[in-house]
Design a protein that fits this description.
Layout (H helix, E strand, L loop, with lengths): L12 H9 L13 H21 L7 H25 L11 H26 L9 H34 L1
Helix pairs in contact: 2-3, 2-5, 3-4, 4-5
Keywords: Membrane, Transmembrane, Transmembrane helix
Protein name: CKLF8 protein
Organism: Pluvianellus socialis (Magellanic plover)
Length: 168
């Protein structure tokens, strides 16, 4: 008996929508020209400086600097992640996520924890503790406060965005 060589294929609407939506990756270069974009890049650059200044020392001998390292690295990674999301306009592809609320929570928590870490960093820097690492720790303390002010600015802009979104 001869076999039939007919093949039937079907396509779901999910697959069609997925391939249509992921075929082109948007890039928003104008985001870097906005104040929140500039603050985010500044947070990344100076946050990297904070944790590299501490990482180059024997910070693991002092728990206070371990906390500063955790906060600096944690928020550095998340800020890079959010920059990628904003630059590629991924937030437009996932409308189920309340991005204004997420941004407000992220920036608000970064501001609070970075402020605590900057205060801990500054209060832990003494020449008596370790003369060899004093300059690195003092510089990291200064830059931690600058990064804190950047997160404060982004928290303000996130709040304005969230507020205008919730009033609509």
């Amino acid at each position: 008996r001869p076999r039939s060589h007919t093949v039937t294929t079907t396509s779901s609407s999910f697959t069609a929508n997925l391939s249509a939506s992921s075929s082109t990756l948007a890039y928003d270069r104008e985001f870097l020209r906005t104040l929140p974009g500039i603050l985010m890049v500044t947070e990344i650059v100076l946050g990297l400086l904070v944790w590299t200044l501490i990482a180059g020392t024997e910070y693991f001998l002092y728990p206070a600097f371990g906390w500063v390292m955790f906060v600096a690295v944690f928020y550095w990674v998340l800020t890079v992640f959010f920059l990628i999301i904003y630059m590629t306009m991924t937030y437009t592809r996932i409308p189920q996520v309340p991005w204004t609320t997420v941004g407000l929570c992220f920036n608000g928590s970064a501001f609070i924890l970075y402020l605590i870490a900057a205060i801990v960093d500054a209060s832990s820097v003494t020449k008596e503790l370790d003369r060899h690492n004093y300059n690195s720790w003092a510089a990291s303390s200064f830059f931690a406060f600058v990064v804190t002010s950047c997160y404060a600015g982004n928290t303000y802009f996130s709040f304005i965005s969230w507020r205008s979104r919730t009033l609509q």
